[in-house]
Write a structure and sequence with these properties.
Elements (H helix, E strand, L loop, with lengths): L8 E7 L6 H9 L4 E9 L5 H7 L7 E6 L5 H11 L4 E4 L5 E2 L3 H6 L6 E10 L6 H4 L8 E3 L1 H6 L18 E3 H6 L12 H11 L4 E13 L10 H17 L4 H30 L1 H9 L5 H12 L20 E3 L11
Parallel strand pairs: 1-2, 1-4, 2-3, 6-9
Antiparallel strand pairs: 4-8, 5-9, 6-8, 6-10, 7-9
């Protein structure tokens, strides 16, 4: 950004059955002076999410609450929020999460970007009240993220549970999204963020990262965020295939997308095998596996890894229950704290 460019931010929040947390999320966005609009889309909730959201209004006229009668998924909800909003900058906030004070001031201090993201602190729900006093004050250390680094950063590995860089929540320039006709893929219920950012990077987006921490992601011990349907995995690897088919890319970018596509497809094959076993029996599942020699390693390797999972220690900062109340972990490692003045 330059000094002459507008800094008005729209915060979009897709919410389903988030009555317990939506008020905190909205309050954290209203507290940011750069926020001109907050658009909450209640995605077919069966609780009083919409009523709680409206009750969080501070009277400044910045809050809009829209409702879907039926659940359509976070991608559809976010697309609707973007269509309703007008601000030139768009930020995504999950309904369970919140911004730390001064988040947008830190992001907007940086120049020359189309997408810009900061560090995420993962916090157990019990530790939210004291989180701001405990977060590390990290130096920004800005750097650009290219398509290869982004895609490879979203390939999870055994022993590192769900530490993907796709968890980053960038501030996005609406003009870039509009110029390239980019919106969330509404067929996806898994990886819709990854897909949007990958398509933007494939079209030349300047994606900057700073290590300063401005986003709090709340970890719940009973969270269902890690659950997904088998078909969602298939649609995600098909989204990689679509990027490869539709976008001119260099050989390194193509190789990275193929690695991610294979990674997700392997997960799909394992889940599909287990679904067949549960619904039609072991013989049917084995018949499927033997007819797919390219999937054998993924299926039987995945079964072995799952059976021995208890032997490994997970080292990820990502959203699993953290242990002690008030515990904090960060998505971006290796950022030394600023020296105290």
């Amino acid at each position: 950004m330059t000094a002459t460019e507008p800094t008005r931010v729209c915060v979009i929040i897709a919410a389903k059955n988030a009555a317990e947390t939506i008020g905190r999320a909205i309050a954290s966005a209203l507290a940011e002076p750069e926020v001109a609009e907050i658009v909450v889309v209640d995605d077919g909730s069966t609780d009083n999410t919409a009523a709680v959201a409206r009750a969080a209004d501070d009277g400044t006229g910045r809050l809009i609450v829209e409702c879907f009668e039926e659940n359509r998924g976070p991608a559809a909800a976010r697309n609707h929020a973007m269509a309703v909003s007008k601000a030139p900058l768009v930020a995504v906030l999950d309904a369970d999460d919140f911004f730390f004070p001064g988040r947008f001031r830190q992001l907007l201090a940086q120049a020359e970007w189309d997408f810009i993201a900061d560090n995420i602190a993962f916090i157990d729900a019990e530790g939210v009240p004291d989180a701001y006093d405990k977060i590390g004050r990290f130096a920004p250390r800005p750097r650009f993220l290219d398509l290869v680094g982004f895609v490879d950063g979203n390939i999870s590995r055994r022993g590192l549970r769900r530490g993907e860089i796709g968890f980053l929540k960038p501030l996005m320039r609406r003009s870039f999204l509009d110029t390239h006709r980019l919106r969330y893929n509404e067929t996806l219920r898994l990886g819709e963020d990854y897909d949007l950012y990958a398509r933007a990077l494939a079209r030349g987006a300047r994606y900057k990262i700073i290590h300063s921490c401005g986003y709090g992601a709340v970890v719940r011990r009973d969270s269902l965020s890690g659950s997904h349907r088998t078909i969602d995995l298939r649609r995600l690897y098909e989204a990689d295939q679509a990027i490869l088919a539709e976008t001119p890319l260099d050989s390194n970018a193509k190789a990275a997308l193929r690695r991610h596509e294979r990674h997700v497809r392997d997960r799909y094959e394992l889940r599909h095998f287990l679904d067949l076993k549960n619904s039609k029996g072991l013989a049917a599942a084995l018949g499927y596996a033997l007819c797919r020699p390219d999937a054998l390693a993924a299926i039987f390797g995945g079964i072995f890894a799952d059976k021995t999972e208890h032997l490994r220690r997970f080292r990820s900062p990502a959203p699993v229950a953290l242990g002690g109340a008030g515990d904090l972990r960060y998505l971006l490692d290796g950022a030394p704290p600023e020296q105290a003045e």
